[in-house]
Amino acid sequence: MSVKPGKYRHFKGNEYEVITTALHSETLEEMVVYRDLNNPGKTWVRPAEMWHEEIEHDGCQVNRFTPI
User: Fold this and answer.
1) In this structure, is the dihedral angle defined by the CA atoms of residues 27, 66, 7 and 1, taken in order, positive or negative?
2) Region for 31 from its dihedrals, namely left if φ exceeds 0, alpha if ψ lies in -120 to 50, beta otherwise
3) Is 49 helix (H, G, I), strand (E, B) or coil?
4) Contacts of 52 (CB under 8 A, 6+ apart)
5) Burial tier of 68 (Cβ tally within 10 Å: 0-12, 13-18, 19+)
6) Region for residue 6 given its phi and psi (left: phi exceeds 0; alpha: psi -120 to 50; beta: otherwise)
7) H or E, element range at 8
8) Closest-CA residue to 35 (of 17, 57, 52)
9) Are 43 and 33 in contact (CB under 8 A)?
């Protein structure tokens, strides 16, 4: 399941912009390349599988990232 470029909200409230996806050079795992909209100088990478995870937060199941 690929991640589309655009803006997303993390379950903790911060907003990020997905720039693109890339493949890990060793494992070919899909990675999400994204930047912090509150601190544009920071660029992050996270496995796409984690991007789509549902996690437990305050006793509820929530999406780690939600499109905005």
Assistant:
1) positive
2) beta
3) helix
4) 1, 3, 63, 64, 65
5) exposed
6) left
7) strand 6-10
8) 17
9) yes
Pair of tokens at residue 32? 């999400």
Mean pLDDT of the chain: 94
Q: What is the pLDDT of residues 1-25, one digit of tens each?
A: 689 999 999 999 999 999 999 999 9
Contact 54, 61 (CB under 8 A): yes
Q: Is the pLDDT of residue 68 over 90?
A: yes
